[in-house]
């Protein structure tokens, strides 16, 4: 098999696995809560463990990248995802489940960073990455549907994820992956930009904060939508789990529609439009939740709305740092979002009930929108 074709196969399988793992935890969260007798705060620690593991995985992968071949690190990361997904259904208490989700997160973070960097360095202008990243949506949409098909089961979705991770590990080891072409080896340092070292650090921190808000919002909807719909929207467990597929479907369609917008609109303007629309969509989910099906549609529109945020932030970063400086910091900061907010969300849900979930998400969207507005005052991001 030719190197570029082999890399494309690895990319497709890898993004399907990433999408599946990302979307699996939210739909099974009510089942894990019941199995381990957890309140909302306890369930939030399951989300936190995964996000913390992903953050650490990104940082570790970035640190060892110059010493360990990407193929080896990808295989190790895939192996960790396989082991964690295979073990989660057998976790007999909440502490074990948290430990296993931390393990899954470690592998996820490493695979997420390295797969994006390797694919971005292949083809012309990252064309291979753009082509195969749509496979993320296949996994993200398919997994909630699988959970909805057999609600109450943890083994079916996570053993499916384990099988995909095992296939990815095998492909990574057997295929002849080309070395990525990078102008600057990515690392954990933020190198000087046009505004000098201090300005460069400020720019990456600001962009990382916006990306953190986006990942928190995406993870918040994916993690808590099923719980909200099942408890307050009159949806059955199957319908509530399957409804998350509409959110991921909206996000996938939005990414496809956003491709020409990223090239035509300045990143700040596109971010304001996307985050403003998502704020209104989530507000609709909060205020119209009693209307049958209204919250499901509102969540789907939120996915459609926030879809351009990630590529817009990456485009903004690339405009300032064409060599990719600070990309590890950007990824790690983004994945740390739910680590900070999931426990707070769980505590608020315990205090005010599941009807508070869309209001919390609306507030997160509004704060992230305000952060983008505040970047106007930064000279390093003009």
Automatic annotation (TrEMBL):
Pfam families: MFS_1. The keyword Magnesium does not apply. Its main location: membrane. It is a multi-pass membrane protein. Keywords: Membrane, Transmembrane, Transmembrane helix, Transport. The keyword Transmembrane applies. The chain crosses the membrane at residues 43-62, 74-91, 97-121, 128-150, 156-177, 198-217, 240-258, 270-290, 296-316, 328-349, 355-374. It is found in: Endomembrane system. Gene3D superfamilies: MFS general substrate transporter like domains. Belongs to the major facilitator superfamily. This is MFS transporter. It comes from Kineococcus endophyticus.
């Amino acid at each position: 098999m030719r190197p570029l074709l082999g890399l494309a196969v690895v990319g497709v399988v890898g993004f399907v696995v990433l999408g599946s793992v990302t979307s699996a935890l939210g739909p099974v969260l009510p089942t894990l809560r019941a199995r381990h007798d957890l309140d909302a705060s306890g369930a939030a620690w399951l989300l936190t463990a995964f996000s913390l593991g992903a953050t650490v995985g990104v940082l570790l992968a970035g640190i060892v990248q110059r010493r360990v071949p990407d193929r080896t690190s990808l295989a190790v990361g895939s192996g960790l995802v396989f082991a964690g997904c295979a073990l989660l259904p057998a976790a007999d208490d909440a502490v074990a489940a948290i430990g296993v989700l931390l393990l899954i997160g470690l592998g996820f973070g490493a695979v997420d960073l390295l797969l994006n960097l390797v694919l971005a360095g292949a083809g012309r202008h990252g064309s291979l990455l753009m082509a195969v990243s749509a496979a993320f949506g296949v996994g993200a949409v398919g997994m909630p549907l699988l959970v909805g098909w057999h609600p109450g089961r943890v083994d079916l979705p996570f053993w499916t994820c384990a099988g995909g991770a095992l296939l990815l590990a095998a492909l990574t080891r057997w295929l002849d992956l080309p070395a990525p072409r990078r102008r600057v080896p990515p690392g954990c340092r933020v190198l000087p930009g046009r505004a000098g070292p201090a300005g460069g650090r400020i720019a990456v921190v600001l962009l990382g904060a916006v990306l953190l808000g986006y990942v928190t919002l995406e993870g918040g909807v994916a993690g808590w939508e099923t719980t909200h719909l099942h408890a307050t929207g009159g949806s059955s467990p199957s319908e509530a789990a399957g409804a998350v597929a509409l959110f991921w479907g909206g996000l996938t369609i939005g990414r496809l529609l956003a491709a020409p917008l990223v090239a035509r609109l300045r990143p700040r303007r596109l971010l304001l439009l996307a985050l403003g629309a998502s704020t209104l969509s989530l507000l609709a989910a909060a205020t119209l939740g009693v209307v049958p099906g209204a919250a499901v549609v509102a969540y789907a529109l939120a996915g459609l709305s926030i879809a351009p945020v990630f590529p817009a932030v990456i485009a903004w970063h690339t405009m300032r740092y064409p060599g990719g400086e600070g990309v590890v910091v950007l990824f790690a900061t983004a994945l740390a979002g739910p680590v900070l907010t999931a426990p707070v969300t769980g505590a608020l849900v315990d205090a005010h009930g599941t009807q508070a979930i869309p209001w919390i998400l609306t507030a997160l969207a509004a704060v992230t929108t305000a952060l983008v507005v505040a970047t106007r005052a930064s000279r390093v991001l003009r």
